[in-house]
Design goal:
The protein is an alpha/beta fold and 596 residues long. 39% of the residues lie in helices and 23% in strands. The strands form four sheets. The protein has an eight-stranded antiparallel beta sheet. Strands 5-6-7-8-12-13 form a six-stranded antiparallel beta sheet. Strands 16-15-17-18-19 form a five-stranded parallel beta sheet, sandwiched between helices. It is globular and about 80 Å long. Bound molecules: fructose -6-phosphate.
């Protein structure tokens, strides 16, 4: 993961660099660092975030007109100051996003020739390789180029030389990196969020590119060493400063923003046609990670009903290596809030190679997945600052169901199913708002689960996927051990977990399967479980006498799924509060997972 940003300007850059770095903290926030040059050469690193870094810099250290900075999510080496970037060797400072897979071999070779390493990171080999090339007499750019030729893996690298303080050098392979510019300022950053407010236009580097930045020029060399001309795009203005308003946490504010996020997403996609090449799909392959994967799994149930198309749900990190046969006529749907998730991104070339069109369901429309997709099918949830997906998840559900409706129309499928789904989507914003009003009861349940320190979530069909999202959310926000199972699978093993008082939380709407789900609830209850049912008004009577607690949530059918999601989010949020967790920044996580 990690975020990198660099600026070379006619003015001191420290303040803007740290502000840009702050925007990248969703990519990792265990440590941060900065190198500034011209005049002087200053390097500072801290355990903590951009504001801690700002506090660590003395005023007389901030005159540099070129600088690179980094916010870290540890891959190799603990979050310690010596492992924070920039890594510096003989006046070469480097920030790196990605993973250098052959770092151990490189380190060994360098150590043998007398290099001394200070960190446990894979990244530290890079300044050593550059310094080694410089010592052999290579010019600055050549030294960077010779160094990256050694690297296997993924990298976005920015390099600052103490003896060339008006230049930044950039190299890219596998990890995304952008170059931004405005008059007198040139920047490099992991994404446009860090560039907003600093630059007016940006271009994305391609694999194998090298770039040389000065305050008034950008030179990009492609993988053949030829000067490349690239298209520049406008950097979107920075979104309004993310205010917490009346909320204690971004996560809670984002839960409350769902009605607006859903309405906006639905309005944007309503009636949006599918291009012919995509409308002709014979099979849909959904590829995603984490919550985005559960959003696809939840929506699949209805998309299959809507379209009659077989839908595969694929874990990106598995799919990229599985060598799965891809049938002609398939369409791939990459689902990703950030549009930068490394594993999801890595599946793109597989589809390209087989001529399979790619639809990108992304929230960040200036992202790598968006740029590489044949069709962008966006969510408009707005920027999500809490690390846990909340409003982006429900916005993905809307977008995916709208995609199903569009396929249903293109294929002339049953209009009654379409009408049912559209009615659910129209009702969803109000249903979310109504569910939020049940917060006190959900908080009470959360306190009980926090005390038990475990939870089993079950459901069938969409309810099984929602159970998966519930377990994920509870784990990541509260660190409580939580499991999710398709209710019918319980008796094949997991029912052994049930003891007297085990919390079992059931997601069931009144569909054809409710009776079956009630039976599964009976089975765990008979073994001592304390059952909570999240269901609709009719389901409430089906669960009466089976569940200790029945949460009768608003809505029916498609609309009701949104109520279940809001309920699970509030449950996880309050469990985290009860245990004193850092809700917006859970331990070990980052918002955007740009390493595999
Ligand atoms: C969970 C969460 C993660 C992400 C996953 C994919 O709350 O946020 O599981 O859903 O890392 O990220 P995107 O959607 O950006 O590809």
């Amino acid at each position: 993961m990690c975020g990198i940003v660099g600026l070379v300007s006619t003015q001191p850059v420290a303040r803007d660099l740290i502000s840009g770095l702050g925007q990248l903290e969703y990519r990792g926030y265990d440590s941060a660092g900065i190198a500034l040059a011209g005049p002087g050469f200053v390097v500072r690193k801290v355990i903590g975030c951009a504001t801690d870094l700002a506090a660590a810099l003395r005023l007389d250290e901030t005159a540099g007109r070129a600088g690179i900075a980094h916010t870290r999510w540890a891959t190799h080496g603990k979050p310690e100051e010596r492992n924070a970037h920039p890594h510096v060797y003989q006046g070469v400072a480097v920030v790196h996003n990605g993973i250098i897979e052959n770092h151990a071999m490189l380190r060994e070779r360098l150590v043998e020739s007398g290099h001394v390493f200070l960190s446990d990171t894979d990244s530290e080999v890079v300044p050593h390789l550059i310094a080694e090339a410089r010592a052999r007499g290579a010019a600055h750019l050549d030294a960077v180029q010779q160094a990256v030729e050694w690297l296997h893996g993924a990298y976005a690298i920015a390099v600052l030389f103490a003896d060339k303080p008006d230049h930044i050098f950039v190299a890219k392979y596998g990890s995304p990196v952008l170059i931004g510019a405005r008059s007198g300022v040139v920047a490099v950053a992991s994404d446009t969020i860090a560039l907003a407010g600093l630059c007016l236009r940006y271009t994305a580097l391609e694999d194998g590119d090298l770039a040389v930045l000065t305050p008034d020029s950008v030179r990009i060399l492609d993988s053949f060493g030829k000067t490349a001309s690239r298209t520049w795009e406008l950097v979107m203005d920075r979104e309004q400063a993310a205010e917490l308003d009346r909320f204690e946490h971004h996560t809670r504010r984002e839960i409350a923003e769902q009605p607006v996020a859903l309405r906006n997403t639905d309005a944007l996609l309503r009636g949006k046609p599918l291009p012919d090449g995509i409308a002709a799909a014979q099979r849909l392959i959904f590829v995603a990670c984490g919550s985005s994967l559960y959003a696809a799994a939840t929506a699949r149930v209805w998309i299959e009903k809507l379209t009659g198309l077989p839908c595969d749900i694929e874990i990106a990190s598995e799919y990229r290596y599985r060598e799965a046969p891809i049938q002609a006529g398939s369409v791939a749907v990459l689902v990703s809030q950030s549009g930068e998730t490394a594993d999801s991104l890595a599946c793109l070339p597989l589809f390209r190679a087989r001529g399979v069109p790619v639809v990108g369901v992304v929230n960040v429309t200036q992202s790598t997945i968006a740029r590489a997709s044949d069709l962008v099918w966006p969510t408009t949830a707005g920027r999500e600052l809490g690390v846990a997906a909340t409003k982006s998840f429900t916005a993905q559900l809307v977008a995916l169901l709208r995609l199903g409706v569009a396929f249903s129309q293109a294929r002339d499928c049953d209009p009654a199913v379409r009408a049912q789904v559209v009615a659910g989507l129209t009702a969803a914003p109000m249903i979310c708002a109504e569910t939020e009003e049940m917060e006190p009861a959900l908080a009470e349940l959360a306190h009980w689960i926090a005390g038990e320190n475990e939870a089993l979530f079950i459901g069938r069909a969409a309810g099984a996927a929602i159970a998966g999202e519930a377990a994920l959310k509870l784990k990541e926000l509260s660190y409580i051990r939580a499991e999710a199972y398709a209710a019918g699978e319980l008796k094949h093993g997991p029912i052994a977990l049930i003891r007297q008082g085990s919390p079992v939380l059931v997601f069931a709407g009144t569909d054809a399967l409710v009776g079956k789900t009630v039976s599964n609830a009976e089975e765990v209850r008979a073994r001592g479980a304390n059952v909570v049912a999240f269901t609709d008004a009719d389901g409430a009577s089906a669960f009466a006498g089976v569940a200790e607690t029945v949460m009768a949530l608003p809505g029916r059918g498609v609309g009701h799924m949104f109520a279940q999601v809001v309920a699970l989010q509030l449950l996880a949020y309050h469990a985290a509060l009860a245990l004193g967790r850092n809700v917006d920044r859970p331990r070990n996580l980052a918002k955007s997972v740009t390493v595999e």
